[in-house]
Write a structure and sequence with these properties.
The protein has 495 residues and is of the alpha/beta class. Helices cover 44% and strands 16% of the residues.
Length: 495
């Protein structure tokens, strides 16, 4: 019998084949996208230790630090004494084990009991968190541990950071005691079935499906689909197509775009289908030019770059709040001249007030301000107005001047190379010679965020910070220059 960790049991819950591959063919896994999530988890875990152990009297028995044998011995001894909070305590029974994020001694009754809390970086308790806690509760109680409370500590997205490293209130603990203790029979069956799967000599046969992406994207997805015949043009190229509809088509034997029934598609989906199959571009030039109208005054083009922090670092901000640190603004004069303005603060200090002040100056007092998917820019501006009420009037004025190029692009233009997407990066190559791929290092929004986080890190050298700054400026500038070119294309200025 193998000693299956809680994470292995959760893998089994997602897909028995995933568990088998993790045990028998771990070299096949692609976990390249997991590090960012791990980093967030470590950060929230560190905060949890400070929140649940403000006096610093607890013990960290993480086996990754002290080894598995030592961790098991320390955990057993400390659970007997109840001398303080425990972190990463190793709980074990025959066939399974788990690491408990937080264990708090409870002396409310005569006998020592423990509160067991799992820490998650999400803003709510998810279904797989409930499975996670149920497994851990089963292991803890079958190891002889008396539990007074079981809960999940998740991020409170209404928490406003007061500064000075004070994170009291960042975590909200949801009590799952009764639910977790009531699922012992389920967990016992999961463990037995997982052990049976683990003992198989032959790889389980399980078709790819929705479970490959829920609750996580499986690291073996590419391996599992390598021998599956892929459609020449899959139906999921259609924009805003529901997964349920794709699944229904698959049950009816419809996997190719050309077989999709037109009467089950909306107008834009029909347009994408027709353009893709014919290879011909759809362009309602008159409709696009009419929607834009004549240029009455100066015209602006705005794009923000924002960052989110699960654990806020700037006073007055919330977890996962969209915080602008950069913008690019192009101005097309009525006379035809082009001017560019930009803002980027890589000091590591809260950049928002300075950004708002400069933006107000750069936007002037009149003229349409175009953005691509302007709802995002509007949300950023509203948040700035809430945070800095002294600038509410000016920022609301900018909001009223905002207009959106995305609906015009979606209604009036489609090139087969877009593959069902109207993202700026999908449309731009079809109408312009500009290419994000020509940029160095920072070629998309996620890369810009990563570059910003590296730039504000105290360990980053001045030379590297300047390099990152230059590349972020170049990227954001291209975002707004791309909208200038799109605007001119739709107006009929360039062909």
């Amino acid at each position: 019998m193998r000693k299956l960790s809680k994470s292995k049991l959760i893998a089994f819950r997602q897909c028995p084949k995933r568990l088998w591959l993790e045990l028998h063919k771990p070299e096949l896994i692609d976990d390249s996208g997991s590090q960012a999530a791990f980093n967030i988890g470590y950060q929230v875990g560190d905060i949890a230790q400070r929140v649940f152990d403000p006096d610093g009297t607890g013990f960290n028995v993480d086996p990754n630090d002290i080894g598995w044998a030592e961790s098991a011995a320390q955990t057993e001894a400390l659970l007997q004494t109840g001398t303080g909070p425990l972190f990463e305590a190793l709980l074990s029974i025959p066939g399974s084990l788990a690491l408990a994020d937080v264990m708090l001694p409870d002396f409310a009754l005569a006998a020592l009991r423990w509160q067991m809390i799992e820490v998650k970086s999400s803003t709510r308790v998810k279904d797989y968190h409930r499975d996670d806690v149920a497994i851990q509760t089963y292991i803890a109680q079958h190891s002889g541990l008396a539990l007074s409370k079981v809960g999940v500590a998740h991020i409170n997205n209404q928490f406003i950071y007061p500064g000075d490293e004070n994170y009291d209130g960042l975590l909200h603990v949801e009590d799952l005691t009764e639910e977790a203790k009531g699922r012992h029979a389920e967990v016992e069956l999961w463990i037995a079935d997982a052990q049976s799967t683990a003992a198989q000599e032959v790889e389980p046969i399980i078709k790819i499906g929705g479970h490959c992406r829920e609750p996580f994207t499986c690291g073996f997805y590419d391996y599992c689909r390598k021998d599956v015949t892929q459609p020449e043009i899959p139906t999921n190229i259609l924009p805003r197509i529901h997964t349920a509809k794709v699944s229904d088509w698959e049950r009816r034997g419809i996997t190719e775009l050309h077989d999709t029934p037109d009467d089950e598609l909306n107008l834009i989906q029909q347009r994408v289908k027709a353009a893709t199959l014919s290879g011909e571009t759809y362009f309602d030039a008159v409709g696009a030019a009419t929607a834009l109208g004549a240029q009455a005054t100066h015209t602006y083009f705005l794009d923000f770059e924002t960052v989110t922090f699960p654990v806020p670092i700037w006073k007055g901000t919330r977890p996962y709040q969209q915080l602008p640190f950069q913008y690019s603004l192009h101005l097309v004069h009525k006379s035809g001249g082009l001017r560019h303005a930009e803002f980027l603060d890589t000091s590591g200090d809260d950049p928002r007030k300075a950004l708002a002040e400069q933006l107000i100056q750069d936007c002037g007092n009149d003229g349409v301000i175009f953005a691509y998917n302007a709802g995002f820019e509007k949300g950023v501006l509203k948040s700035l107005a809430e945070s800095f009420p002294e600038y509410t009037s000016q920022l609301n004025s900018i909001i009223r001047r905002l207009d959106d190029l995305l609906p015009i692009a979606r209604d009036c233009y489609y090139h087969p190379s877009q593959k069902g997407s109207w993202s700026l990066k999908a449309v731009l190559p079809a109408i312009s010679e500009l290419r994000y791929s020509d940029l160095e290092e920072v070629q998309n929004g996620m890369a810009a965020v990563d570059a910003y986080k590296e730039a504000i890190n105290s360990d980053t050298t001045p030379e590297r910070k300047q390099e990152l700054r230059d590349r972020m400026l170049e990227y954001c500038k291209l975002d707004t220059y791309a909208t200038v070119e799109m605007w001119e294309f739709f107006k009929g200025t360039i062909k």
